[in-house]
Amino acid sequence: MDITKEREDIEEINHFSHENHTLKLVNSEMIVNAALDNRGGGVIGCYACHKPISSRGFAYGCIQCGHFMHKACAQLPLTINLPSLYEHPLTLFNFGPTTFKSWFCDVCCSLNQFKGFCYNYGKPEDNINFNACIDCCVVEIARKEEADAMKKETRMKVKHEGHPQHTLTLQLKPAAFLCDACNSKDEGLFYICENCGFWIHKTCASLAPTIHLPHHPDHPLILVYSLPEKFYKFAYYCEFCKIYIRRYDWLYHCENCRYFSHIKCALNANAGTPSTPGDGPSTSIADEEVDNLLQFPMSNAFTDPLKLLHSGMIAPDDDDDQKTMVNHWSHCHPLILQANMSGCSSDRLEVCRGCVRPLSLPYYSCKSDGCSFTLHKYCAELPLKLEHQLHPAHSLYLEFRQGSYYACHGCLSYGNNFFYNCQTCKFYLCLSCAFLPKSIKHKSHKHPLIQVIDPEPLCKACNKWSDGMSYDCKACNFILGMECATRLPNSISHRYCKGHKIPLMYPPIMDHPEDFFCDICETEMHPKFPMYYCQKCKNSFHPGCISQFDYYENMVFESFGS
User: Fold this and answer.
1) Where are the alpha helices (DSSP H) in 283-426?
2) I need a surface site. Which of 4, 77, 178, 545 has the fewest CB within 10 A?
3) 82 close to 120: Cβ distance less than 8 angstroms
4) What is the C-alpha to C-alpha distance for residues 58 and 50, in angstroms, rounded to an integer?
5) Predicted structure pTM score
């Protein structure tokens, strides 16, 4: 604290340390010129404390005599009364005219080998001489002023918007308690309501009404002392610590974007202090592998991982060693390879009997009369045994269930096609789930997501529980169901928005203070979950309403010949 802060800058003063001339307020240019003219280019020191005078700012000085002092040193009080230092008043003493070559500070025990000033009490008849250096006294003066101001503040009852029903009183002694503003137990001075159990830190009582965060650059965050009533309908979580926002939490928020943060989390984030356990890098995957992960969402629903896995690996007509006819374990007739479009003209959509996805070259087909069995070449060459991270206890074996169906433990869909299974555990995976990537990158999260099957995970995108496969970041407790992670395309067409696609939007959706309602199911939508939203038409849709998952996509409803 600057003890002379409130004093006005007087242009010219008389000072007891230089009685021959007055001291004038000089600027940095005059100080530099004096150093060049009188000191041979050296640094000018303060006569009182012997510390250098900065070439920036102002000081008091007599240029004629080369007598300069900091403004603060020139304005030191001549007498101070500090019982915390000494029982008697101390007088500002000038060692300049004396013959002493050094003197000793009785407070900090430092030996000062210069003239200058100190505060002194002397009684020669009793052999008493007490010296205190300027620095020690200035610190004590600042403490005394702060304590006096605080005592004055404690005698005042203050009103605060965060507790409008009663006045608050400042307590002088610091204490550790659970602050009703920031919900932390940091020790410090505090305000207390003498009528009820309301306590807040002194620092929390003087929070800035608005702050700007780089995490939310488009709008300022406004301080509120409780969750606004209009947001009571849905659950909201702090953007940093991910903890549930209670109705009476003090918050920094952006109403338009439904952006909420506990006050301490926001201030820590503004200071560069991590507030979230997952703020650091994820350690699940090596950095060099992250760049090779598939990025979701894709332009289309990712329903055919086998095709992507083998695209570019199988050329239709450049392999002389391709077998034109094979006997496959899944079918009783020989299968003939179709490597080009000749003889493949059919108006109906044909699907592979292995993965139940549209046929693409090259594929095998059965040309026996009355039998329309078809199989992608890569489906015909699938490994009969598979080790999979979702079922590490046992190997999975390829099977073809004809005449009955299975239920996939990954996507929960039914199928009567090829699938991998563990007979011991009755664990089944359709081909699409069996060959989904083990790790992915997703637009909604900063870390890679790992494929898991957790007991009843709650998806962070649709807020639904599922027994099936999901993608998980353990460090952040972030999880996406398989459908939300891989099946939602980046944009989608709908008759409500003719001529353009509807993009998949992730919160916050900027500058949309109104509530969202799904144009299909007509229910209000949680604004903190992903949605398909058309800014042009102002249409919004639940992902599950506009892009419904087909739980029978692995079923073939057709009789195949034997």
Assistant:
1) 287-290, 305-310, 377-380
2) 178
3) no
4) 16
5) 0.64
Give the tokens for residue 207: 């929070």
- Asked if 326 and 334 count as a contact pair (C-beta separation under 8 A), the reply is yes
* Contact status, residue 211 vs residue 221, Cβ threshold 8 Å: yes
Q: Give the dihedral of Cα atoms 199, 205, 211, 216; nearest 10 deg.
A: 0
The DSSP symbol for 153 reads H
Amino acid of residue 191: Y
Residue with tokens 């997501």: 449
Q: Beta-carbon neighbour count of residue 130 at 10 Å?
A: 18
Q: Is 505 exposed, middle or buried (0-12, 13-18, 19+ CB in 10 A)?
A: middle
The string of pLDDT tens digits covering residues 481-495 is 999 999 999 999 999
**Numbers of helices and strands, H then E, in the chain:** 10, 38
In angstroms, rounded to a whole number, what is the distance separating the alpha carbons of residues 168 and 283?
48
Contact between 250 and 182 under an 8 Å Cβ cutoff? The reply is yes
Taking the chain, what is the end-to-end CA distance rounded to the nearest angstrom? 95
Residue 351 φ/ψ region, left for φ over 0, alpha for ψ in the -120 to 50 degree band, beta for the rest: beta
Tokens representing 250?
């003090």
Residues in the chain: 562
Residue 415, amino acid = G
Peptide bond into 297 cis (omega under 30): yes
Distance CA 162, CA 183 (A): 14
SS (H, E, C) 322-374: CCCEECCCCCCCCEEEECCCCCCCCCCCCECCCCCCECCCCEEECCCCCCCCE
Torsion angle in degrees (nearest 10) through CA of 503, 508, 509, 510: -140
386-426 pLDDT tens trace: 999 999 999 999 999 877 899 999 999 999 999 999 999 99
The DSSP symbol for 248 reads T
Two tokens, residue 502: 């509807």
DSSP-based three-state secondary structure for 122: strand
Rg value, the chain, Cα: 39
Chain segment 153-206, per-residue pLDDT in tens: 666 788 999 999 999 988 877 788 889 999 888 888 888 898 888 999 989 999
3-state secondary structure 464-530: CECCCCEEEECCCCEEEEHHHHHHCCCEECCCCCCCCCEEEECCCCCCCCCCEEECCCCCEECCCCC
Closest CA to 252 of 278, 216, 279: 216
Q: Distance between CA 335 and CA 323 in Å, rounded?
A: 10
